Amino acid sequence: MYFLYTILAALSFYYVLKWMKRRRYFTELQRLDGKTALITGGNSGIGKETAIALARRGARVIIACRDSDKAVKAVRDIKLKSHSLNVLHMELDLANLRSVKDFCTRFLHSEKRLDILINSAGMPSVLDWTDNGFSMCFGVNHLGHFLLTNLLLHRLKECAPSRVVTLTCSIYKYQKLNFQDLNYNLLPFFTYCRSKLANIYFSQELARITEGKGVTSYAVHPGFVQSGWTCHYSFLFRMLMTVIMWMFFVPCEVGAQTVVYCAVSDEAAKHNGGYFVDCRPASLRPFARDAGVAKKLWEASERMVKLA
């Protein structure tokens, strides 16, 4: 009898975990032939799965990442899984503003189209600094993508209708921005929360300033995903998180569904500046919908990256 109870308890636990990880799949197969998609951090995790999905739909896919060796392997894998040869990589280090500017110069010179920009690359909560003296989380997750998007914005307008999808996280709700110390880097987890809140404000303000110009913007929480972000931490922490992620987090392919939805779906296009979870619009905390704060952050970010 004890054995039976153990089996029932194990099965119950398994199905509870499965229920907790249930997600919608985006199954619409709109073609993207003739369109170009740029994905930061496309060599792994959600970015890579997004690249596969867009390449499979016929898009020309460019993954932008720092590690060239990993990028070469990722391009090979994306081509194999998407059955598309129209995939390539370009070097980009979001922790270095000079690298961002050089990348944009090379991209604009070599690529005539940009229809979809996926700001997917991200840095977890680590106590570190960028080459320009910004906290690593805020510098990579927000400022690097802020500068990249602005320098490519004219090309996005030329190729309208075009879309910008920026990955954020639901933990934005645990912090508010402090404009006296945007570069806060004392408690890494709170720094990460602030960077994800900044992603939301950025997406909203981008939608406002490009209203009527053919560029739409979306912030996406992909869910908690079994990605490789733990590589920045100790061996023991990685082992612990491997177990936790297996139990509660979703695979990268599942996490990419909402990103692809916002990049492709006609329905998503109706919610410019929206926040999306599980392939549908979701509500935000009131403080995360403050247009005044979004505009103030945009202006502060322009000064921080010295954007004329």
Automatic annotation (TrEMBL):
One of its GO terms (molecular function) is oxidoreductase activity. It comes from the Eukaryota. The keyword Oxidoreductase applies. It holds the Pfam family adh_short. Keywords: Oxidoreductase. Belongs to the short-chain dehydrogenases/reductases (SDR) family. This is Retinol dehydrogenase 14-like. The gene is si:dkey-174n20.1.
